[in-house]
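FORM 7B - TANDEM STRUCTURE REPORT

SECTION 1: FIRST PROTEIN
SEQUENCE AND TOKENS:
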Amino acid sequence: MKIPGGQGPLAVVDQHCVSVEKLVFWIILTIAVLVIFIGRAKMKVRFSLVLVSLSAILLMLYANTTYCGLRESSRAHVASTIFDDFAHFDRKKYLMELRHNQIKEKSKEDFTLEELEELVGKALANPQMEDVLISHKNEFEKYNLTLFGHFNEAEFVTEHKKLCIELTEKFNRREKLLNSGISAKQAAMQYSGRLPIWEIDELQSGTIDSVYFAGIKANKTKRFAANITNNFGFDDADEENKGRYRWTLGDHINYRFEVIKYLGGGTYGEVLKVIDHKFKEEVAVKMLNNYTSIAKHTMTEYNILTRINNTYPNSNFFIRNTENFKFRNHFCMVFELLAESAYDLYDRENFRTDENSLKRYVSDILKGMVLLNTLGIIHNDMKPDNLLLPISHKNENEPKIKVMDFGLSCVKGSQTTKCPEYYIQTRYYRSPEVMLALGYTTMSDMWSLGVIIGEMFRGSEFIFGESEADQFAAVMEIVGLPPVELIERSNRRKIYYEAVCYETKKGFKRRPYRKSITKTLLLDTPDHDLFLDFLQRLLRWDPIERMSAVDALNHPWITGDLKDFSKLPREKPLISP
């Protein structure tokens, strides 16, 4: 990537530089004029004209050498002098001015990125820079910089563990507010004649400890004792919804939770909004479908949540799982009730014009990922639907968004939460290494996050395909061709060959490099240069070259500190703006 000279501190050099071609032209023109006039003038006048002309030519040569020197070498010298003189040099502003000049007109006198970084390093090494950066806070905000500060992983983890202890103590205090309910035998007597006979039998069976709500007025699901294959009539019989619990609004779950709304569902089960009559609060209950293949998914999420809660109990970066139970052969998980998802968020918000707000959400997601990484957990299904907002956000220090749904999560090397070899992650957010079956790490989650951030900024889908081959083709359109070594290592390289010449069902032909991040997200002004660099470092083909969650939290787009550029990996971006 080349960054041309522009109107920044080196503008003094650019404005007075004359190319060799122009210099020769002016010298020839001067000599021609001189010859014409000398032939017509007297001897004394001729002598004066010769002296003036020679002086003009020497002055042009001297001026051009002084200001421009020998192109790169003298240019670098002058730039270094300027940087030494300006302790308040604003690197971000300068980079944006250079980019702006590149858009307006292409200059032949280019700095490579490495040369520019070397020159800028001299300015950043000035001991006065730290104070100057703080004093220029308003100027940073003008260029979409938010001063979150440098992120220290060890300090963050230590402080968060202390916070988790406080949150757990606060959560446990709610036990004093609980409703004691009545015993199952009391409920059987009290509701006799108002509940169906099978529920009276259930209450008298000894499997129910206490009753808080019985749903007397609900249209009860009928039980059929002879229908063993259909869970005695409690589950759906049709093939499409096989194993799904036949809940009804206003009825109870486990004689405690009142069903008030359907929140969503999928392959593994459904999530219901309920009133917990024990604690008089609204929560969410996830009812897993009742068939054997679901058991593995159930235990995976349970084991991951247990692993998180053992180290970070009641962490506010993740959805809180308060308890679990089994009801009529369905495993149920109780979660805190959250609000809208990141998908709903970017559907109503305009992050293009409010980049600082986007940074705050991204920062909170990254901190949650840092905590998962300390436990060796790979989420494996990062997507907007699995990032939810709290219902209320009164404390500014609390996360604005939480990570949820650990049904596909795993821990490398663990026996209880083994990592699937393939078919993880929702297609739009699936990383290249997963599609190529190369093995994956926590870096695959970082790819997913990069796509999510692109969507949040754009307000719609960012990289999306109708099939896995089309998804790979869509990635190549924006990121370019993958490194040859990645394809050679893959035993699923056929997906690459299908993707190179992929034609969609509607007849559209995809081709590598057709678009770019810059074009897709309309990053056509220098104001978004830091954001572009941030996104490029997440969407790398090779997972080794991607930023980790800690690296991302120390990127200048997040920290607002330009000196943090020196802490980032210095390999060349694979994607050119």
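SECTION 2: SECOND PROTEIN
SEQUENCE AND TOKENS:
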Amino acid sequence: MSFPATATTDATPSYLADYGAATLDGPMTEGQLSTLIGQLISQNDDSLGATSGGVRRDAIRSYHGLPYGNEIEGHSQVILTDVLDTVEWIMPTLIDMLIGSGMLWKFGAQEPADRAGADQATDIVNTYFFEYMDGEATLIEMVKTALIERVGHVRTEFTETVDPSPKTYRGLTEEELGALLTNNPDYEVVALEEHVGGETVVDIQTGGPLRTADITIANTAKRARIATIPIPPEEFSISLQDTRCNDETMFANHRSQMTISELVRRGYDYEVLKRLPEEDDLRWGGGTRIYRHWEYPARLGSQVHRPDVASRKVWVNHSFMRVDYDGDGFSEMRMVVSVGTSTPVVLGNEVVNWNPFASITPIPVPHRFEGLGVHDLVGDIQLMRSMFARNLMDNMYQANNVRFLGLEGQYDVDALLDSTPGGVVNVDSLDAVTPLPVPPLPPHAFDMLGFLKQEQQSRTGVSDWMSGPQPSSLKHQTSGGISQMQTASSAKIRMIARVMAGSGLKQLGKNILRAMTENFSKKLTMEVKGRWLTVDPSSWPQDMHCEVEVGLGAGESQERVANLMLVAEWQDKMVSKGLTNIVSQRNVYETAKAACEAMGFKSEGRFFTDPLDAQWPQPEPALADKVKVMESQRRKEEDLMDNQRGQLGMLVEAESNDQLARFRWAELEQKRKLEEERLVVQRETAEAQIEAQIRTAMIQQANQGRAA
């Protein structure tokens, strides 16, 4: 097969000319990298800020019920909160579906030998996220942000920080000083001052003056931790060609404010940081930040200047991008930490293995990164319902405060303006004052409000049935019909949960797992489901697949518990018929575990024990076997006593005058007699029980023969 010949030229293609020859061949310099990051940040911030930023501002305004700007003075300015109501109705059901069982992720092994590691990872990652990383609050903030503002982001971060805050101890003796330094090996001495006591302060051991010391120490050890950081959407940017945020993303950036002190604690050079200008402009972010803090508009424009360098705030970019920095022809994933926008100052540049961002959107749009939020569904309905509500209120105001048509000079103006009940208005003629008629609203106006409410319910799935059966329709519905209506009303919410679980939440679980396996070189010990586990995360395979277990809502969980009870009955019947090859101990345990999860218990360990961890007792031997064992023990004890009696007899013959030996002989003989009597009683009792059982069996057999 031959390919057509192509013309060659030394000219740089037009679509590459803007980047310059230095970026096309060979390694990049730090200046070129800084310029590239500045261009990517500016390009993607501008492209997203014009459209998405405006939509986010409108969504935040609608959620908080802020004025639309079309209000008229003297008329009703009421604003309904359909966006807020819908979000707050969805949140409890959605969160219960995601973390109602207490387990968000389940990891699966690629090889059979890695199954134990996958089970450990499932328990440890979930426990670490919820117990040590404030995971529930992080998840709630991420989900609610996505519902309101179309998309929610979380960045997983591993940091090793140093807290060199000094500690001072005064009046320490030599022994106390040595113990302090021995017990704190990670601290270094910052200052040390010795003191010698006067004549009244005497060392008890030496008799001389007491020597003490004042010491100041600082911690130099690094503190390792994994954190999940919720990101406001205006602080996140991603390249337009990326429709998903994962390890293949070309460019993703998180721009956040940090103090110089925080950067120094992370190990960056203080000499470089102290020359950076202060950046306290909270208006960055396309105006979204203004509406996020709408209660304090004056405080956003003026910030207090901090004279100390450590407290200054700067905008820091954590950029994760695929770029061929070393010129080897392969675009590797890099984390570049920089300060600034147009030509940022690069503080750190290193190769990383994975993208730490996880993003979710409630309603995905094909081939787009951002989907739709609640405001996109009901924002227009909130505006229309607010307009209808304003007209209704204006009509009621006019009906209760009627305007009058009066003939000039023929009525008392002050009396007419006084709206005191029962008041008198003096007029010169009966037709001097005539009330202006107020046209009533047509009946279909109220029907329009109901229509808009139904339209809102059909768009979002949030209906009155989510709060339970309605009394007005109970007499026309069966329990099955009510259950079907409740299930149908939560179908869209269940779909939102599945979309979030299959995208950003799965990525979040993978990111936490990777952070543990790469950075936790020491073993972890923590309590999981009522038992203590010691594991080594670095031994877990990193290629485990992750699943998010989406549960059911509160109403459907009851149905699931009932179904599990039915499964338990089937298992019990099969075991009673001897079908243990079909139902095992593990099957029964899994049924009980699933029932506990459906009931809302976070751990089944309080009620059931995993068969793999249980110490099962040995089955009790039959009664006849007990008799044989007792006889064997009796013979062994008799042989032992005979040996001891023979030895003592020889001792008595050798030392006939030794009274102690005679006493021990008598004591041993008495013990032997008592033991023989006890064994005889046990044997007779066992034999009597066996005879009784045999007699009972014979009687039952005879009765069955007569009945036949």
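SECTION 3: OBSERVATIONS ON SECOND PROTEIN
The first strand starts at residue 105 and ends at 108.
The chain is about 45% helix and 15% strand.

SECTION 4: SIGNATURE
Preparer initials: ____
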